[in-house]
Amino acid sequence: MTAFSPEIEVAIARTRDEVAALHAELTRYELVVWTGGNVSGRVPGAELFVIKPSGVLYDDLSPENQILCDLDGNVIPSTPGSDRSPSSDTAAHAYVYRNMPHVGGVVHTHSTYATAWAARGESIPCVITAMADEFGGDIPIGPFAIIGDESIGAGIVQTLSGHRSRAVLMQNHGVFTIGKNARDAVKAAVMTEDVARTVHIARQLGELLPIPQESIDSLYNRYQNVYGQNPAGELK
Ligand SMILES: O=C(CO)[C@@H](O)[C@H](O)COP(=O)(O)O
């Protein structure tokens, strides 16, 4: 059995609880079907993250069957869940954690409207205030990348580095989001689908009206730093 300090064991247990519970948000907001999609969370204070097992039904996910990995994506042996294969996107999540130290959570979905934009290789333009609030501008397109190795992670990091958006539409694939923690990344995935649907419908009705850059900046700053009870600030 791999031994960690008591403090890290507590952090791992909390991350297992959080990541398992957050998968239920993907089904609640209808962002996934069957076993598609995944959530991971970095273990605070350790070079570790927790991710779901591959191809397991959402109803069967629990804290005990989430899988503990190091930042190279290797499963930590003899830990709960380590008898199963981790998510097929584990190498991609690991690449993001290694290369974006400020990121504490990563989420992937094939949510319908956002993935339809990805299938066209088209970024979602910032034409509603909710997009300016959450993403600070357009939601960008990332490159086409093969599933199963670091390619997706490299595409996420390349596209989102220096970008305000917490979401990228990986071309021909779907949504990947990042956040300060796993919950923040899940929220970004929920918001991505919401704005993808609204902007798609708006475009069916006529011409989209851009928001001036200074208004986008102002909306973004207010939402990230003033909105709500305890704003966490932008992701950087
Ligand atoms: O995008 C893909 C495959 O197209 C995968 O990411 C699935 O959406 C989820 O795979 P697991 O996390 O269950 O391996």
Quick structural gist:
By secondary structure, this protein is of the alpha+beta class.
Walk me through what this model shows.
- This protein is of the alpha+beta class.
- Helix content is 41%, strand content 13%.
- The protein has helices spanning 6-28, 90-99, 112-120, 129-135, 151-160, 182-205, 213-225; strands at 38-42, 48-51, 67-70, 105-109, 141-142, 167-170, 174-179.
- Helix 2 packs parallel to helix 5 (151-160), helix 4 (129-135) runs antiparallel to helix 6 and helix 4 crosses helix 7 (213-225).
- The longest helix is centred in the C-terminal third of the chain and has 24 residues, at 182-205.
- It is globular.
- Bound molecules: 5-O-phosphono-D-xylulose.
- Residues 35-38, 52, 54-55, 87-89, 108, 147 line the site of 5-O-phosphono-D-xylulose.
- Its EC number is 5.1.3.4.
- This is L-ribulose-5-phosphate 4-epimerase.
Shape: globular
CATH topology: L-fuculose-1-phosphate Aldolase
In terms of per-residue confidence, which ranges show pLDDT below 50 for 5 or more consecutive residues? Answer: none
Helix content: 40-55%
Give the N-terminus to C-terminus distance in angstroms. Answer: 36 Å
Structural class: alpha+beta
Biggest sheet: strand arrangement: 3-2-1-4-7-6-5
Pfam family, one: Aldolase_II
Catalytic activity: L-ribulose 5-phosphate = D-xylulose 5-phosphate
Domain Class II aldolase/adducin N-terminal: 17-200
Enzyme class: isomerase
